[in-house]
């Protein structure tokens, strides 16, 4: 992460560990910090997006022990199968999970499709919440306070809970 190593009017030395050091014109230490904050933002947003994709596509454990595949192709196939069942195009279908196959009808497929939808919603909610925090962080202290994985996880859990609470 970029930080201000030293400020000596009119320059702020911005460093990133031992890999980067450069002097920038800055009217104050605060202006130097704003430069560092701006330099950190793209890396933080990329790290966040990568983490969200990893969680989104990393699979989902369902009640009963079935491990649902959630890579993009598997999500699409599950949504197609659910749609086929929902519109009565087929009476049942074979669902491939990571650890098993299951023949399912619409009644059995609905909670599976809902679990995937809730997971996907929670992933993007987590990314949005943390992305907003990154965008709103105007000081290095505020940026350093962001723990991408922990903050994402908290927002993810909150989004899951919202859906569960609304269903009750």
What does this structure look like?
The protein has five helices and seven strands, in the order βββαββαββααα. With 168 residues, the protein is of the alpha+beta class. The protein has one domain. The strands form three sheets. It has a three-stranded antiparallel β-sheet, covered by helices on one side. It has a two-stranded antiparallel ribbon with strand order 4-5. Strands 6-7 form a two-stranded antiparallel ribbon.
Task: Give the biggest beta sheet.
Answer: 3 strands, antiparallel
Q: Which percent range describes the beta-strand content?
A: 15-25%
For the record, the count of structural domains works out to 1
Q: Provide the gyration radius in Å.
A: 22 Å
Which of globular, elongated, flat, extended, rod-shaped describes the shape?
A: elongated
Count of runs of 4 or more consecutive helical residues:
5
**Structural class category:** alpha+beta
Query: Roughly how much helix do the residues carry, as a percent range?
Result: 55-70%
């Amino acid at each position: 992460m970029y930080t201000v190593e030293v400020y000596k009017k009119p320059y702020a030395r911005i460093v990133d560990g031992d890999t980067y050091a450069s002097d920038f014109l800055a009217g104050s230490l605060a202006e130097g910090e704003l430069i560092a904050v701006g330099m950190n933002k793209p890396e933080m947003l990329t790290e966040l997006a990568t983490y969200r994709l990893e969680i989104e596509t990393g699979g989902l454990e369902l009640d009963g022990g079935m491990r649902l595949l959630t890579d993009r192709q598997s999500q699409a196939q599950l949504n197609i199968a659910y749609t086929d069942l929902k519109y009565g195009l087929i009476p049942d279908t074979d669902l491939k999970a990571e650890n098993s196959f299951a023949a399912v009808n619409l009644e059995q497929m609905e909670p599976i499709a809902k679990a995937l939808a809730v997971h996907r919603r929670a992933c993007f909610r987590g990314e949005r919440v943390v992305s907003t925090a990154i965008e709103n962080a105007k000081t290095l202290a505020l940026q350093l306070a962001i723990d991408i994985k922990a903050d994402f996880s908290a927002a993810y859990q909150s989004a899951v809970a919202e859906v569960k609470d609304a269903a009750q």
